[in-house]
Amino acid sequence: MVELQDRIVPIEDGDVSKQLARSFKKAGIKVSTGATVEHVEEKSNVLKVSLKTSRKNEVIEVDQVLSSVGITGNIEDLGLEKAGIKTDRGFIETDEFSRTGAEGIYAIGDVAGPPWLAHKASHEGIICVEKIAGQKVHALDKQNIPGCTYCQPQIASVGYTEQAAREKGLEIKIGKFPFSASGKASAAGHTDGFVKIIYDAKYGELIGCHVIGHDATELIAEAVTARTLETTYHEILDSVHPHPTLSEAIMEATRDALGQSINV
């Protein structure tokens, strides 16, 4: 794996990125960060890939190359300018109800910009149609759209990363719970990873949750719902989490944030 940024999954929390790198290394995957692919040459059914980093240049030999450089919506040759629809950096500008600047024209999904996720597009579609139908609609909160990466171990997150919260000047409480301390994870044979949860120290509101591990993309829904309800750590701790489950890790991480750890 070759990554241009200084760490893999650069938009995720730094601790998550470090854990994924460790998990990949354990799985036998070589990861090169801060690297660019300068040239690919095919020779005798072998691909020779020239890499450049700040430290050295090297050539690796592989069977196949998959180039993944992001997503852009297909907005070419649609006559958007004639319709009075504004675009920015390759996507259509919309408001919180998916309305463009042109009367009666809406845009959803990849053409409407990041995050480029199927569940975001689906939710935008529902809001869009309900708005057209004249119903009372809640605006889409892009800060509460879960990000999901379907690698192994899986990654799922919502809200602030630790770095983003600190850069915003927020006083925070952080808790972590490793799946190595989870009975369910041990029984399932998937102990890599953890739940990292971030609370606002002043009001106790859940402002970020980051999961790496088996079925992480299933666990994140609790944190998304909690943020929608402006939940604090009190509600998380007062909610009985079934045992043994992976979902207990969210409660356990919350206890850790408050210095009340029991099982780690």
Structure report:
- The model has no long low-confidence stretch (mean pLDDT 94).
- The protein is flat and about 60 Å long.
- The strands form 4 sheets. Strands 8-9-12-11-10 form a 5-stranded antiparallel beta sheet, with helices on both faces. Strands 3-4-5 form a 3-stranded antiparallel beta sheet, with no helix packed on it.
- It contains 7 helices and 12 strands.
- By secondary structure, it is of the alpha+beta class.
- The longest helix is centred in the middle third of the chain and has 15 residues.
Order of neighbouring strands in the sheet with most strands = 8-9-12-11-10
Globally, the shape reads flat
If helices are DSSP runs of H or I spanning 4 or more residues, what is the number of helices?
7
Largest sheet: 5 strands, antiparallel
* Cα radius of gyration in angstroms: 22 Å
**Percent of residues in beta strands:** 15-25%
Which class best fits the helix and strand makeup? Answer: alpha+beta
Helix content: 25-40%
Structure summary, number of beta strands: 12
End-to-end Cα distance: 33 Å
Instruction: Sketch the topology as an H/E string, one letter per element.
Output: EHEEEEEEHEEHEHEEHHH
- Ranges where pLDDT stays below 50 over 5 or more residues in a row are none
Mean pLDDT across all amino acids: 94
